[in-house]
Amino acid sequence: MLQAIGARLASSLLVIVGSLALVFCIFNLLPGDPVLSMVDPTSVSPEVIENLREQLGLNRPFHERLLTYFGDMLTGDFGRSLVGSEPVLPKILHQIPATLLLTAASSLIAIVVGVTLGVLSAVRKGGLIDLAARIVGLFGISMPTFWSGILLILIFSVQLKWLPAMGSDGWATLAMPALALGFVGAGSIVRMVRGSMLDVLGEPFVTTLRAKGLRERLIQGKHVLRNALIPAITLIGMQIGDMLAGTVIIETVFSRQGVGRILADAIMAKDLPVVQGIVFFTAIVYVGINLLVDLSYAAIDPRIRRRGANL
Amino acid sequence: GSSSGASTAQAAAGSSGAAASAPVQGGELTYALATSPDTLDPRRSGLAVSVRVFGALYDTLLVRKADGSLGPSLATEWEASGDGLSYTLKLKPGVKFQDGTPFNAEAVKYNFDSIIDPQTKAANALALLRPYKSSEVVDEYTIKLNLETPSQAFLGNLSQGMLSLVSPTAAQKDGENFGKNPVGTGPFKFVGWSENAEIKLARNPDYVWGSEEAKNTGAPYLDTLTFKIVPEEATRIGGVQSGQVLAAETVPPQNVVALQNDPNAQLLQTNTIGFPYTLFFNLEHEPWNELKARQAVQYAVDLDSIVKTLYLGTYERASSSITPGILGYDESLEGKIKPDPAKANALLDELGWIKGADGIRAKDGKKLTLHYVDGSPNREKRNDIAAMIREQLKAIGIETEVEITQDIATVVYQNWDYDLYGNSQVNSDPNGLTSFYRSAGEGRRTLSGLSDPQVDAWLDEGAVEPDEAKRAELYKKVQQYISDQALILPVYVFPYTVAASRSVQGLTFDPFGYPIFNDAYLNK
Amino acid sequence: MKFSAAAAKTKSEHLRRIPPFKRAEAVGGSGRATGSTFRLGSADVLTGAAAIAVAFLALCALVPGWIAPYSPTEMNTAAILQAPSAPHPFGTDYFGRDVFSLIVYGTRDSLLIGASSVLVGVLIGGALGSLAGYVGGRLDTIIMRFMDILLTVPGILLALTIAAALGPGLRNIVLAIAISSVPGYARVMRGQIMGIRRRGYVFASRALGAKPSSILLKHVLPNSAAPLLVMATLGLGSSILAGAGLSFLGLGVLKEIPDWGALLSQGRGYLTVAWWICTFPGLAITLFVLSVNLIGDRWRDAVDPKRKGRA
Amino acid sequence: MTARLEVTDLTIDVDTPRGTLTAVSGISFGIGPGETVCLVGESGSGKTIASKAIMRLTDYENGRIAGGSIRLGDQHIESLPPHLIRDLRGRRIAMIFQEPMAAFDPVFTIGSQLIETMRAHRREKKAVLRQAAIDLLIRVGIPEPELRMEQYPGELSGGMLQRAMIAMALSGGPELLIADEPTTALDVTIQAQILKLLGELKDSLGMSILLITHDLGVAAEMADRIVVMYAGRIAEQGPAALVLGQPRHPYTIGLLNSVAAQGSRGGRLRAIEGSPPGLADMPDGCRFHPRCAFATDRCRESVPPLSDQGGGRLAACWHADEAAAAGDAQQAAPAAHTGAAGPAAVAAPAPRPEAAAAHGEDRASGSAAPQASALLEARELYKHYPVGGGWGRPKRQLRAVDGVSLSVAEGETFGLVGESGSGKSTLGRLLLQLEPQTHGQVLYRGEELPQPGSTRWREARRDLQIIHQDPYGTFDPRWSIGDIVGEPLDVHMKLGASERRSRVGELLEQVGLQASWHNRYPHEFSGGQRQRIGIARAIAVNPRFILADEAVSALDVSVQAQIVNLLQDLQRDLGLTSVFIAHGLQVVRHISQRIGVLYLGKLVEVAPSEELFRRPAHPYTRALLSSIPGAPAAGRETFSVTGEIPSPLNPPSGCRFHPRCPLATDRCRNEEPAFAAIGEGHAAACHYPL
Ligand SMILES: Nc1ncnc2c1ncn2[C@@H]1O[C@H](COP(=O)(O)OP(=O)(O)OP(=O)(O)O)[C@@H](O)[C@H]1O
Ligand SMILES: Nc1ncnc2c1ncn2[C@@H]1O[C@H](COP(=O)(O)OP(=O)(O)OP(=O)(O)O)[C@@H](O)[C@H]1O
Ligand SMILES: [Mg+2]
Ligand SMILES: [Mg+2]
């Protein structure tokens, strides 16, 4: 068991380090100079620019910078933003809760809505409910979040004045962004759950359950759903990842705090330390999601639990 | 053209009735900004949005009054030396920074010296302060500022927000972090900044040294002033309409009409001064180095129609390289150039660019293309301007490649890879023209890339000419030259618009278009 | 725990023992929609409608001039922001362009963004996934770890990098979307291949002496492709949306004839004053996604022998 | 409390994408209290759907009771509202299924699934129910019931699961137990145990049982009465002894004849020609007429009613008397208990009776010993699979094949039998060198086969072919059968398109399919036809050797007989050597000259077929033989094994069979018996050969 955890940690670490190195390389490939976006090149002399580069260590060779970066990271130093020159770690730590909250809330919505619609549509296969659920699901995956987000604002903030249009303080501000984001994930989950529910409904053990005289609701809610979730979990995990990525747009639309917006700004400003810090965070979240996915597998599927396959 | 000609802040719609009622003390004004300030350290900031906050946090030595002249603020008197190489300023006594540090000559000296210190990584402030050399503390409240070369713009620049004065104690203590813990002498003191969400300021009760710019020279009426950062237009306006914020800046034209009819909202609008949104030809690129080619474009593009269509009548068309309200603005240029496709075609024909089968002109096997670079996102519908210009140029056989890029710094300022690129600047003095049109030094260049000794001479003279009337003449010459040479396409004068709840009263703007919060109060 | 390999084997072994007829029955007879009046045949009506829609869109992409009443670039400044009316069924935009014509002409690029990014993503992801799944072992680990890394690198960062490295343009938007989608396709493909390579017909072919390469090409790949292709039908829509998202973040290209995503993103500011500018492009995307998915589902049912006969 | 089930004129429609089809047409039968009725018939004849209709489970499978009635006591099941039906299910009628592994929800423990069933029908404290569940498990003979309660279905063996399934069925105390092929998926030894258990339970609980099977042997052993179904109708029904002993419907007679039985070795089986019709294309009149030797115009035109044939027996045939007479005439030979031994050429005649007979005799008399030169020889073969391991667990060795030596002579057919998991398939794969062995050698014509990948290895692939148990799974669903049959041609001979086409056509005809079907797809064929396709593929490149791994196990008896005949013809015509793996002992006996018995990876006995059946030397062989359903052969005492095959991960010490062997001694526990000759061509690994 310990060994299993060790192996798991090692591979997670590899992914995290790999992501950071990849981002570092990407930035190295990017033309343009962060210093140029920091100052007005028409009014600042070349020496000043050179001087700034020197200060930021930008003219040292690539591998040296990479090594220094990882070295500093080990001591908990993620560097300072090139733009605001504030330390990266506190800057990001401050934003992470909002993003995590949004991701979690929208995942919750996606899962609850997606699974419910998926189950309904499978159980009522071929019926109007099925058709409706599938179309609702497809709408979810065919609407850009910024559009549905604005629509939500117009309806719930401007017209009905029920919910605040912006901000990230309090539950009320979470509702619309989570809905806009979660709806997208729900779309895919509906399809997946429907398909796998139908597969499981065709399994012989369902006939056994019926032959035992169990209520249909018990069969579908307890047995079929649990089995159907097994193949759906991977997709749900991927959806959560997508939702994390989706925060970039949603945070902008709803003017929420969060790493998504910081990331967008940092990328535009070529602020590598900040980007790296955020990638570090997202990599950890991805690794966490994978762990969660595996844990849910184990929780749902005793075959995996008993074998201790992935953990 | 600009009907009023003056740079007075013109509050439209509802603000008129407001003046009557008596100001109410207290309350929180939430004000949605379209973008986030980069830093609250005026010395290091490069963004206009930061200046909107600086006005509340800091004071400047001088202020620009509504009529365009300079007025006292932290400096009560000022006087130039005969050679124009130094200025002596008398400072207001009894002023304290919000951290208790007294404001005096030492503080001013510290501020200006730190701006020219490379360690500070000063940005726009450095450009504004030039040609500052050093300071001499004459006595506690008198300071002498020495310049490298005479500059008529210098004094005026001291009224710009980027040259606001910061607390030396705090600046030294916080160093790099000062921008996140700003301390000034302004009417509001800093409470907190949570990134991408809001900047919270609180009333500075000790504030009694307000300039005459606002009616209220004492402490502000508002208890709290909170800037929210809301990049998405629809959300920002939605915020005002739903009452979640009391004011929001930069109202898109299409919403202006709706807001004007909204009983719960009012629309405040003021034109900004400086350099209008201007498209610069790159004189180093063929064939735009030829006057006739540029003229052809000038005749082909119907800017009146573009501005009217896109901004639905809410923006004013710009006619010159500077905006009305700036010294020397040449009104005669207004309406001087009328769109004339026939003339445009003729000019290009003359140059030997012949229309091909696809309707695009070509010469020596080379197509006539214009590389139009614009920034992203679509700020003030500038991308849409590009789209319309592309259509209009197509009519005369020019193919426009529009490049929309996030990375203006690289594409434009490093590679100078554009035929046409647009820029605007808030400024108070025509001397700013130098940075666009005066031939730059060795290995450097300007947006226009112009290098004409005559223009250089006018601009150099204008920088030092003490006589206002003569200065104005010089700059008129420059403007006419620019227009005659078709160096630019001036597009629009940017009006700063604010949508506000009806309860917001007394919110006014300085000539630069920056909000003045000292008179603002909330009607219950 | 008494879990022996023998027991693990028994299930598949026993399944093999069921007469073939019965196996078909086991998967064929799934839950009946209780009390629904909306029955089987309607699936075909829907698919038919979807096919017509796709055909129409294809027509728009190929010969927009036949369908659109106006030129998409014609800016009639005298008629801006006109609500839908007989001459302009979808209204006009802020340039005075006819929205209907814009959408018709925008079809080509939209479908192109969708199709080509899916194509590239499927090709790269499919190839990597097949390699990982078929070869297995260390290569599998390396490839999948790299996919994990790619997954954690934010999509906009990729988009920006590619745009910076190759210059701006549609091609790069496509590439960026494609590359972000690679890990997903690779995962699915790998899973498929790992399943298919254990199939009886692969074993049979090997027993016949067929070369591994020809087994891969003739048996494994064709049989693994279906889920990937179904995923690709979903990808068609989400790529267009991803393009819209990039356009929202300001990474789009300014084309003479904007694609649907760009129309949507550019028109969003007018939602309150001229809802038609971005609503109709949104509906176009929905229509496309909906029809492609309906066809995709139907087609999977038709291709997948396990799902034969299911609606 | 026990009531009679009465099914009258039951007709069941199923909705399919192609429209509504009638799966069962007007069947009637009854089951009295405490009676066991067997429903027999070939695959697709409607047995399952009829039995599901009794519990109205057809509601969930697009099925509809279109006519007739089902009455349990005084309740009309066909019209009961859903909640009453649910109350009936599991309480008054319980059902067990063929696939114990598939019939349990894999993600809940056995215990929770048992308790859940009880809770559906009675309100009681959990502890009480738990105790009741444990009692039930004890009752069905599951050892360590408390432990099993906490285990998941995947952790139990098939036999154990089937017992648990029965326990679950019993939990409601049903009056009627429907068992749909409850032992088809199990080994003969386990099948015997389960059937015995069912018999005991029925006696002690006084339930009625409706047993569905396609195995006449099982029916013979269990049934009080037998109902024979064909194509959705009842062909014949009556007391078991009568139906099996004096069948009156040509179909029943054909079925009985198809069973490979004692004494028929090597000869042709009397298969029923053709295959059962599909639902969509039912013949008019008597549905059996296209396959019936007695068919007349009357049969083609009108449906024969189920008419009284005396002795409580009913048959639906216009020509029952003729058929019965013809059947009787053939029953000169001592009737076996199954009644199937009699060579009754009632059904359509075999294609080449003379040749078959002649050759059959030849073969039969031929020597069984491998004196001819060995084509394939295995020397001390071992195959150990590493299992487990990873994530910090130790790797263990699964001894699938554990030291097997045997040789197969040129032209010989060698049969391989043994319980599931004994290593038959693995040994087969090793013989063909489709997998590398852990130890030992395989010699093909005296030489070791080269390594995979080399040219010679590929050549060997041409000589050594395999017929797979499950043909459907070994066909690429996207390939037409022409391509499937042509695949070996593409691999080994580069034929031109037309040549290839004609060869494929030839092959298809050779196995009794039409050449014109080459562009059809596998799913369009019936099980028997698919097996033919598999055979065509195997013989496409004229191999020397064929491994038939359970090639007929999945088929219906009538089709099985056809395939066995075909295989025998081909072997003879092409001079093939073969190894024939099956768990149907009778079939192996019928087709092979010698038989090897495998137990837990070891060969325990090898003997000429007849010798093996007559004088099994190893107790395990003996046990296998006596597990064959139907009464044991005369003169041989029952010899039943208990328990199940142990795990090959840690096989028992000494003689591997000792834990299950009634004769085991300490010596058996400690000392491994040598594989020693005990007669001519007869060897066994037992300390105390019988
Ligand atoms: N849900 C269903 N939908 C369509 N056809 C069905 C369905 N269930 C059964 N059938 C058809 O009804 C016929 C009878 O099926 P049934 O399962 O009762 O046969 P069986 O006698 O039990 O065969 P086997 O021995 O293979 O189990 C078959 O042809 C089958 O294809
Ligand atoms: N590839 C493998 N990896 C691990 N174990 C295997 C593998 N193949 C077979 N086994 C194990 O080897 C043992 C023998 O299997 P094999 O398939 O040869 O048995 P069999 O006699 O053919 O059984 P059946 O009658 O069920 O087909 C079983 O316990 C099985 O689980
Ligand atoms: Mg059945
Ligand atoms: Mg086997």
TrEMBL record, chain A:
It comes from Saccharibacillus brassicae. The chain crosses the membrane at residues 12-30, 100-123, 135-158, 170-190, 228-254, 274-297. It comes from the Bacteria. This is ABC transporter permease. The lineage of its organism: Bacteria, Bacillati, Bacillota, Bacilli, Bacillales. It is a multi-pass membrane protein. InterPro entries: BPD_transp_1_N, MetI-like, MetI-like_sf. Pfam families: BPD_transp_1, BPD_transp_1_N. SUPFAM superfamilies: MetI-like. Residues 96-297 form the ABC transmembrane type-1 domain. PANTHER family: DIPEPTIDE TRANSPORT SYSTEM PERMEASE PROTEIN DPPB-RELATED. Belongs to the binding-protein-dependent transport system permease family. Keywords: Cell membrane, Membrane, Transmembrane, Transmembrane helix, Transport.
UniProtKB/TrEMBL annotation, chain C:
GO terms for cellular component: plasma membrane. Its main location: membrane. It is a multi-pass membrane protein. GO terms for biological process: transmembrane transport. Keywords: Cell membrane, Membrane, Transmembrane, Transmembrane helix, Transport. The chain crosses the membrane at residues 45-67, 111-134, 146-166, 172-189, 228-253, 273-296. SUPFAM superfamilies: MetI-like. CDD domains: TM_PBP2. PROSITE patterns: ABC_TM1. Belongs to the binding-protein-dependent transport system permease family. This is ABC transporter permease. It comes from Saccharibacillus brassicae.
From TrEMBL, chain D:
Keywords: ATP-binding, Cell membrane, Membrane, Nucleotide-binding, Transport. Residues 328-371 are annotated as: Disordered. InterPro entries: AAA+_ATPase, ABC_Ni/Peptide_Import, ABC_transporter-like_ATP-bd, ABC_transporter-like_CS, Oligopep_ABC_C, P-loop_NTPase. It comes from the Bacteria. Coiled coil: none annotated. Transmembrane segments: none annotated. SUPFAM superfamilies: P-loop containing nucleoside triphosphate hydrolases (SSF52540). Residues 328-358 have a biased composition (Low complexity). It is found in: Cell membrane. Its main location: membrane. Residues 5-256, 376-625 form the ABC transporter domain. It is a peripheral membrane protein. GO terms for biological process: peptide transport. CDD domains: ABC_NikE_OppD_transporters (cd03257). GO terms for cellular component: plasma membrane. GO terms for molecular function: ATP binding; ATP hydrolysis activity. Belongs to the ABC transporter superfamily. This is ABC transporter ATP-binding protein. It comes from Saccharibacillus brassicae. The lineage of its organism: Bacteria, Bacillati, Bacillota, Bacilli, Bacillales.
